[in-house]
From TrEMBL:
Pfam families given in the database record: Bac_luciferase
Source organism of this protein record: Micromonospora noduli
Domain Luciferase-like: 27-323
CDD domains in the record: Flavin_utilizing_monoxygenases (cd00347)
Protein name per its UniProtKB record: Luciferase-like domain-containing protein
Length: 356
């Protein structure tokens, strides 16, 4: 693996701040959100702008997530997008958060990410997820067969993928690029299945706290309990992904976060659409049940002024023992997205540039 220690070369950030400070590396997860009235092209350009700016600020890694059949998300082809981001940055680690393995033949993933690693050695992460990242009809359209779409097939397909990178795949197939050009492989999860598997394989693990906060502590406990030292890690390394919206005041952060909450509600109710404006989200007539859903989704996330977000993120690190936090910020305007990461770098973490 290109990055045997996922946090090699980083130092705790936030030194010198009074009281409690963030003491783990901070990274970015982006979905290339498509705002209402704009295009997927504009969303991808905004993601490129964000990658460049977070690199300047000193964030450790920048991941994009695979989703399909979702009008609000343009990151449906992570390998293609990562090639573009790598060409427009120079130091930040880039990766998938994640590639949904049930959607793809392992050989295809090995060749795509082997190509990325060959072009940008030591900068590529391959985060692997077990869910399809979409509905079953779309998953079937991607895979064209039900084979491999079940949870039971995931360990076998993961083994095939790793063997393509190592060259241990039986038979005549050689992944080129791929063999000998393995990126840093992570397992992603929102429950205990991938947590346990990551531990048994000795891989780093990233947990989706941003949409499964009730499972965070049990999954991390499973990961650590089952961890076996490997050629990649000698001890567990857990990253926690968290929603983070930082603005000058708590009230503005709450207003900026409105479109994300409404988008997730509509997605879960079968009415996906591009990201609404903050004013549209604020005017939406939530029912009592819908409002309870939104409040529950925000549980354990980070939203508010720099001081509020610092307290929330520090609490999260202390509760989870996370080795790294990955922040995801889904707001309508890219400048507000950039500003959130700037405030966190400069006022929450005490200047990420010092710890990059």
């Amino acid at each position: 693996m290109a990055d045997e220690n996922p946090h090699a070369g980083t130092k705790p950030v936030g030194d010198g701040l009074a009281d409690r400070v963030i003491t783990v590396p901070l990274s970015v997860l982006d979905l290339a959100p498509v705002a209402k009235g704009t295009t997927a092209g504009a969303a991808l350009q905004a993601t490129t702008e964000l990658a460049r700016r977070t690199e300047e600020l000193g964030y450790h890694r920048f991941w994009v997530a695979e989703h399909h059949n979702m009008p609000a998300i343009a990151s449906s082809a992570p390998a293609v997008l990562l090639a573009h981001l790598a060409a427009n940055t120079s130091t930040i680690r880039l990766g998938s958060g994640g590639v949904m393995l049930p959607n793809h033949a392992p050989l295809v993933v090995a060749e795509q990410f082997g190509t990325l690693e060959a072009l940008h050695p030591g900068r590529i992460d391959l985060g692997i997820g077990r869910a399809p990242g979409t509905d079953q009809v779309t998953a079937l359209a991607l895979r064209r067969t039900m084979e491999g779409l079940s949870a039971e097939g995931f360990p076998r397909e993961l083994t095939d993928l790793m063997n393509y990178f190592s060259g241990e795949k039986p038979g005549q197939i050689i992944a080129t690029p791929g063999r000998g050009e393995q990126p840093a492989v992570w397992l992603l999860g929102s429950s205990g299945f991938s947590a346990q598997l990551a531990g048994l394989l000795g891989l780093p693990f990233s947990f989706a706290h941003h949409f499964s906060s009730q499972n965070t502590l049990p999954a991390l406990a499973l990961y650590r309990q089952n961890f076996r030292p490997s050629q990649w890690l000698d001890k567990p390394y857990a990253m926690v992904a968290v929603n983070a919206v930082c603005a000058e005041t708590d009230e503005r952060a709450e207003w900026l976060a409105g479109p994300s909450a409404l988008s997730f509600l509509k997605l879960r109710s079968g009415r996906p659409e591009p990201l609404s404006t903050p004013d549209e989200a604020a005017a939406y007539p939530y029912s009592e049940i819908e409002r309870e859903f939104v409040v529950a989704r925000r549980d354990g996330q980070a939203m508010g002024s720099p001081e509020t977000v610092r307290r929330q993120l520090t609490d999260l690190v202390e509760r989870t023992g996370a080795d790294e936090l990955m922040l995801t910020t889904l707001v309508y305007d890219v400048q507000d997205r950039v500003r959130s990461y700037e405030l966190i770098a400069e006022q929450v973490a005490g200047g990420l540039r010092q710890g990059a």
